[in-house]
Every structure is written in C-alpha cells, then in structure tokens.
Amino acid sequence: MITIIGHDVTVLLENAIKEQLLLESLIDSVPIQIFWKNKNLEFLGCNKRFVQSLGFKDKSVIIGKTDFDLPVSKEDSEAFRKDDLYVITSKKPMLNIEEPQCFDNGEKRTLLTSKVPLFDEHSEVYGVIGIYRDITDQKKTENELKNAISLAEQANKTKSEFIANMSHDIRTPLSGVVGMSQLLVDALDNPEQKLYAKWINECGVQLLGLLNDILTVIAVDNISDKDLPNLEIFKLRQCVDEIMQLERPSTTMKGIDLNLVIDDSIPDLLVGDRPALYRILLNLLGNAIKFTTVGIVAIEIKLLKKISNSVNIEFKIVDTGIGIPEELQNKVFDRFYRGNPSYKGVYSGHGIGLHIAQSYIKRLGGELKFISKVDCGTTFYFNLVFDLAIDNSINNLQQATNAKKSAQPLEYLCVENKNPMVLLVEDNFVALKVLESIMKLLNVKFVSANDGESALEIATRQSFDLVVTDVGLPGMSGNELAIKIRDWEGKNSKSRIPVIGLTAHVREQVRELCINSGMDDVYSKPMDLSTMKGIIAKFT
C-alpha cells in the first residue's frame, strides 16, 4: 500500500514537473516580455525574453529582486511600481499603457505594457502579472511618418501659395492686356483692327479663366475636415435657373437643347451650401455642353427620400455627347487630366472641372459617379442631403446671417448722381490707365493716386462719392487704406464713402479680409466698362 501511494506521488510529481516545463517553454517562446510579482513587488518569475531585454542571461538574477535592482532609471522604476500597486489594490487591469524605459547606460525604449492582478483560489490578489512589447522601432517609424506627412503638407501648402502668388503676379499685367484690348475694341473703327483687338481680348479672357480655375483647384484641394459647409437657406429652383440662364447662350450657339427636369415634390426652401452646389452644377453642366454637339443636355433633379426634417436629393447631368472611352473612365477625376488626345484636340479644356465638382461633392458628403458610352453620351449623378428650412432652422440661420451682416457694409440706395467724383488708387501704370479710360468713357470725374499714403491724404482733403482701390498696394495696402478712411470718418463725423476693392487674388479669404477691413465690395481684375458702370450706379 505504501509502495502504491509512493508510486502515485511520484507520477503526480513527474506530471507536475512536465506541466511546469511545458508552461515555461511556452512562456519562453512567445515573442513578448512576461513577468510576474508578489504583493511586495518582488519578481516571482519571468520569461527569457524579459531577461534578455535587460541584458541578463539567467532568470535567477531577477527572481526575488525588485525594479530598483534592475539597470533602469529610478524614475522609471517608481513609475512601474506605481502601476503595479494600482493593479493590486484596485483589482483592475491596466491595458496597453505606452511608457518609456530609460536604462542606466542612456539607452531609451518605448514599451506597450498591460498588467492584470493575480488571484488565488480564494479570489484574493497575491500579485501582478505583466506583459510588454518593445515598440521603440514602431514609434520611430510612426514619428518619421508623421514628420514626412507634415513636410509633405508644408510642401503642398508652399506649392499652393507659390501658384496662387504666381497667378496673382500673372493676373496683374494680364488684366492690363484684357482691359486695354477691350478699350481698343470699343474705340477702333477699322473692322480688321477691331477684330485683332477682339482676338487679343478673347485670348486674355481665356487665360484669366484658366488662372481662376487653378486657384479654385488649390482652394478645394486644401479643404480640411474642420472646414464645414457654409449653410444657408436657399431656393433650389432659383439656384438651378441661374445656372441654366448662364449656360443657355452656349447651347443656343451650338444648336443643342438645354432642359431642366425638377421633381415638384422637392420643397422650395432648403438649407445647405448653395455656393458649393452652384459650382458643382456649373462645372458639370459646362462640361456636358462642351462635349455635346448634337442632341440635348439636361439637369434632372429627383427627390429620393424625405426623412424627418431632411431630404435626400439626386442630381443628374445628362448629355448626348461623344461619351467617355472605357479606358479613360478611371482617370476623368484626376487633376488636369484631359481626354483630348483621344478626341484629336477638338475639345478645349484644362482637365479641372470634374476634379473641382468631385472635391465639392465629397466635402458635402456625397460621391460623384457616372455612366458613359462612346457616341451615345454621359450621365453624371450624385446624391446630397439637405435640411428643410423649418421655423427653427430659419431662426438659427437668420441669427447667423445677422451676425455676419454686422461686419458687412451698409447697403446704399441706388440714387442717381449726375456728377459723381471718384478716387482711383492703383500702383500699376497700365491698370490705372485702364481705370482712367473707363471713367472718361462713362463721363465720370476722377482723381488718381498710385499709392495708399497719397490716396489717404487726398481722400481726407477732398470730397468723393466713391473710392476704387487696388487691394495689393505697396506700402499702405488697400485694406489698410479702407481702415484708415473708416477711422477718419468716425473721428470727424463724416458720411461713409463707399470703398471698392480690386484684386488679382480671387480667393474667398481675400474677399473676407477686404470686407472686414471696411470695404463695401470686392471685384476681380480686370475691370471692364459694364462692371464699373454698375458699381457707380449702385454706390453713388
């Protein structure tokens, strides 16, 4: 009987040893560091990877020791023990802690650590077990990636600013070319000379259009997640009608039909980003007209779903044009990509319109898709969700609109003024001559200044009905001039003089800065006779 019992005990011991060896083998083979401690925070055990990570060869060097006996900094040892005590006393695990580990020799590592309490058969905590992974290389790679992304973003920003500034520098002399050539068209009597001047003017206008498109691409490509849509209450049908009227001369000239089909069940008033929707539809419709020579171009708008206080609307731009070859369909949204080589150069364009439309649609939470067949036509379509202009939204948006209007210029009554006096401020000689020529054609009296300082002196010495100033003046800028004029008016109880800014920059930020500086409106260069006539009629 004794022999049998002894045999059983021996078997049990052998099995226990085998299980212990198996467990140690498993723990030693896992690719992470493992350790466990008692309530006194003394090491009860660990795996080989933990031993090796500390520069030791045998577990016996560590067992029975504390963190203060390891070759790491005192600060790190205290931090490790603080976490251990929290796990033991709270009986709660700490998972995925990112913590530093600094060795006595100066080497620094980053660890991703998890710790859980050890419980005995009575559910009492008797220690803590921890595992960690050395993520030093991973963090280094992440930091390098972040730096690379930051550098790329900075480079992209620098590039965008460079293109914007170059576009401005090109627009300034080009505005002079367009303005002067238009004056020649109006002044010349010789038909041949008049035609040459018209061609010069049309080429300049086309180039200005390209520069404006480039600046639009820069703007939409630099939209961030924090740039929320500019919400306002608007009439959808009115917005679309404006686009149809703008493009109708082009379709009439080409002999194609332009149709609008809009679902009557769509509410008249919606809340959304009207300028963005306008730009989307204008680009898509213009693109459809460009590539259609026979048949129709149409905008179709359909109500897909009405949920509570919002509507999901589908927009389609349909044409019977040349279609898009299948091999080019995955490239049409790329910036500056043109399918023209496949069409033998018959169709003009810069490869920007679809990219702009897609960027705006993404910003509004939609996706631009299309179906197309060569020689049959193309349909571009997208869905957007709009809020309904119910009482609450109207009140909220009205408050926001009122807040904006507080920074906006006062509205001027359109009072007929037979003899307005205008102050022209422009540092570019040709641009100033264009403005002066326009004033002469309109039979409007004017005084000219070529910098902000002299303009301010003249404005405070003489009486003017209107100030037209370049925004980018050297020295005192047009914005600074507007601020000083408003300051002078306030201090001397003078009536408000309308101030109009002219700029080669077409970005919305420039316009906002001008309005906030006290200007009444901002116009893009070049100035033409019709626009100036409208300005004088409105503001004098």
Which labels suit this protein?
single chain; alpha/beta; 540 residues; seven-stranded mixed sheet; 47% helix; five-stranded antiparallel sheet; 22% strand; Heat Shock Protein 90; 4 domains; Helix Hairpins; Beta-Lactamase
A few lines on this structure:
The chain is 47% helix and 22% strand. The protein is α/β, with parallel strands linked by helices.
Protein described:
- This protein has 540 residues and is of the alpha/beta class.
- It has four domains: 15-134, PAS domain (Beta-Lactamase, 2-Layer Sandwich); 156-221, Helix Hairpins (Orthogonal Bundle); 232-404, Histidine kinase-like ATPase, C-terminal domain (Heat Shock Protein 90, 2-Layer Sandwich); 421-539, 3-Layer(aba) Sandwich (Rossmann fold).
- Helices cover 47% and strands 22% of the residues.
- It contains 14 helices and 17 strands.
- The chain has helices spanning 2-29, 48-53, 74-90, 136-187, 191-221, 236-254, 274-290, 353-363, 391-405, 429-441, 452-461, 478-491, 508-516, 529-539; strands spanning 33-38, 43-46, 94-102, 108-119, 125-134, 232-235, 257-262, 269-272, 296-307, 310-319, 369-373, 377-388, 421-425, 445-449, 466-470, 499-503, 521-524.
- The strands form three sheets. Strands 6, 7, 8, 9, 10, 11 and 12 form a seven-stranded mixed β-sheet that branches.
- The chain starts with a helix and ends with a helix.
